[in-house]
Design a protein that fits this description.
Blueprint lengths: L13 H15 L10 H18 L26 H17 L2 H41 L18 H7 L7 E4 L5 H6 L5 E4 L3 H9 L4 E2 L3 H7 L5 E7 L7 H14 E12 L8 H6 L7 H10 L3 E5 L11 E7 L2
Parallel strand pairs: 1-2, 1-4, 2-3, 4-5
Antiparallel strand pairs: 5-7, 6-7
Amino acid sequence: MTSAGPTPDDGAGTLPAFLRELTGSFRRLRPQGSLRWNFSDAWVRLERSRARLLEDIGDQQPQPRGGAGPDGGERRGARTPSLDVLGRARARLRPLFETAAPQDRQDARWREMTEALDAALEALRYLTARVEALEDAAELHRRPVDGLDWLMAPQPLGHWAGPVSDRLAGAGGPVLHAECGAGELALALAIDRVVEGVEPRSGVAWTATEAGLRVHPVPVPDHLAALEPEVLGALVLSGVVDRLALEDLLALVELATGRLQHGGVLVVIGTDPAVVPADPLAGELLPGHPLRPETWALLLERSGYREVATLEPPAEVTAGSTFAVGGRRP
């Protein structure tokens, strides 16, 4: 998860320390045993404490407009007591408090506050444990095997320069190719455009850099998340689109859309699903699999893109190896 920016501070560095202490406190409050204990019981006790506190001030509620309830009597309102009602209740109760010993009144109030606090803490303990359990489960479910990017060697995509360049016609602003591999396609597009690349595999990124391309050696989602909104005139996605799970692909398209200018072009270059990966381990360990061009066209249309179409492959592209689908952000 990317950070939204530096942690607010009061100038002395105390707030981050406080947040760390608070996090540690929540972890210490994590209950022992099953998470399926009665959460509602804590809220019931909290509501009871609140009700007793209201009774101490008369528990007077204003009558709602509308007259009698279903039993023929006046219906009690569910709104908070008005200041006048609370004032009258305090006035009636003041003699009772004045006749009681001050220490008794103080002890009774502390008992009520303690019961309410205990109930609230019990609820917080459950919420803390539940959130941590959900986070742990989500992290365990989503955690990939380290280094899976290296299982799929980058494909040479320079032969797509002509069709992609034609599709980018009319798109203003810089162009980003992610993942750019060794940079052949990005360099071909950079003849008359400002083009940069994103390539998380450091060795491959160095190759593209040595060829003259400016490359960001980070994962594609991380780089897109760090960009300002609507800063790109066009975006070419390849490589990463063959590896991610469907939910991650949808998030990637949404993120990419937010970084494109209105009228900007998104081109997806994917591998035909029928093509067997060069490394069979990739097909077994990668969380996702390549999608068909028809599927990508549907995803772009559902994401609001217009002029969605499959690009005609150049003659030198091997039949069934790769495809390209493009669309324009409205």
